[in-house]
Structure formats: C-alpha cells, structure tokens
Amino acid sequence: MHLSILPSIRPALGGNQRVLGMNARNEYVERENDPRAIRLVNDKHATKAALAKFDVPVVPTLAVVRDRRDLGRVDWNELPDSWALKPNNGCQGSGIMLAHSRTEDGWQTASGRPLDLATIKEHVSEILDGEYSFESMDRDSALFEPLIVPDPQLASVVPSGLPDIRVVCYRSNPVLAMMRLPTAASGGRANLHQGAVGAGIDLASGRIVRAQLQRRNISRHPDTDRPLIGLTVPGWDEILRHSVACAEATGLGYMGADIVVDVERGPVVMEVNARPGLEIQNVTGVRLGERLDAVTASPPPSPRSTGVWGGRSARPTGRTSRQPAFS
Hints:
CATH topology of the largest domain: D-amino Acid Aminotransferase, Chain A, domain 1
C-alpha cells in the first residue's frame, strides 16, 4: 500500500470525520498499550535501559538522585559545565532545569540567571517530593543529563533552545510527524502551548511542508525569519528507524517518540510517550484517525516492505524476535 503524504498534509482540517478526539485517543491507548508498557515509559531511566537493548541511541545519564541521601553524596565538581536536570517520572516537560555554563558560584542558565548549589539542591528536593511528577506519585528521582547541543542546521533556525521531533507510531508504523521549534515567546522551550512553532513533516522525505504558530499558518520562523517550508530534518531515516524501534522495545502499540538531533550524536531519543497529544493534527493538517484506520486495514509489513506511507521502510530488521522490556 502506498499513500502520498505531500498532498494530504497541506490543506487545513475540514469537518471532523476521523479527526481523533481525546476519548477516541484514550480508547486506542487502552486497547493497544499494555499497562506494564505504560508504566515503563513513564520512568525515563527504565525506558533508556529498554531502548539500549534495541540499540536505540538515548541521552546519557550523568547521575541519578533517588533520595536525599543520594543528594548529599553528589560530587558537584564532577558535573560538566552544561547539563539538564529532570524528574524521572515528569510529565509535560515540567520541572526541567538547564545549566548552560559554569560560574564561580555554580552555574547559570542561557539567559544568565544564576544557579547556585542551594537553588539546585532545592529543585532536586522538589523533584524527589514528586512536585513535577504524575499525579499518582508522591516520590520521584532526579536525573542529570548532558545538555544537548542541536545540529547546526536546526540551531540556525531558532533564537535559542532545542527543537525536537515528535513521531506518532501505530503498530510500529510511523503515521504522523512534526517538529516543535522554540521561540522567544516560548522562552526557548519546544512547547506548542507556550508559543513554540509546530511544523508538519512529510514522512517520506523528512521535509517540513506546513508550519503553524498558535494555529496560524506561517512560512518563516517569527524570530529569526529563517524559512521553514522545505527545510529537511537532518538524519530523517534514522529518526524513523529509532521511532519504530521505540515502539518495539517498549511494547507500545500506540505511542509518540520524542527525538532531538544532537550536533555530535545525531538523532537521539529523549523520551517515549504512551499518550501522545492530539495537537499534531492541527500542525500537520492531517486527520490522525484516517491514518490509524489505514494501518488497521493494511497487512503487516514484511521486513523488505516499503511501509504504509511509501518510501523506505522504517522497520529495523532482525528485531522482531526480541521481547519488550516488560515481558
């Protein structure tokens, strides 16, 4: 089965036929995602271990702080000049602290805000208390990771921050993809609700074919004036392969892979989401329900298949005999 992406991704959504709503999305999550797989991907550290078994590149972990005893044992001199501090079970990107350079008193953010040890320790304590975690959790652990430096091609488009790519997969088929590009209004965060740009990506070519800012169509980045339409995402074939491998490593039938392109490592997986949001439909102009229906109706792809959406298959060969981490 071969479907052309480019013609279907350009027009804005009309009507609501097979526009996937929240209730329908939740039905897919319940039917396709084993609860053990959901628990796995809610744990960033465990997800990294599961993906590593499938040779999926992930952001390295510098340190894990599981409790206040660990916090007292951290050797702060061993941390690099730049790093990211995250809640292990965080949701919606909350609770992330980014250090961009070292100072005499500790570190500082990209905007120059100081991060002394007292501030960092207080933030770690808030993470441990579950302040940024899923509602059902009253405890969490904190992860220190190296700060990702974006690929120069993408870094030149945004004023600051790290663009990321969301690929939604259904039954190991990539079905929709977008890039989220930080803006000055979003504070350098790749968060659409905070004012980042959403850009729809053609699955077959990896080119941006549509872009929106607060649901308004645009063709250039609002801060840098760099063109967005026609921009090719670096490492696109790898990004598709990593996305499919994420589905197979975690056992999720319906999921979103969040991937960034690092200047040294290339595409690396930041996290896997068992309940990917639905704003991707507005960004791409494509009804997600129609894509899911097409996958459901298609026969399972062979290892040499060109895939549901045409182009080279993203399915890694030699992987299907492996079992997901929760088995």
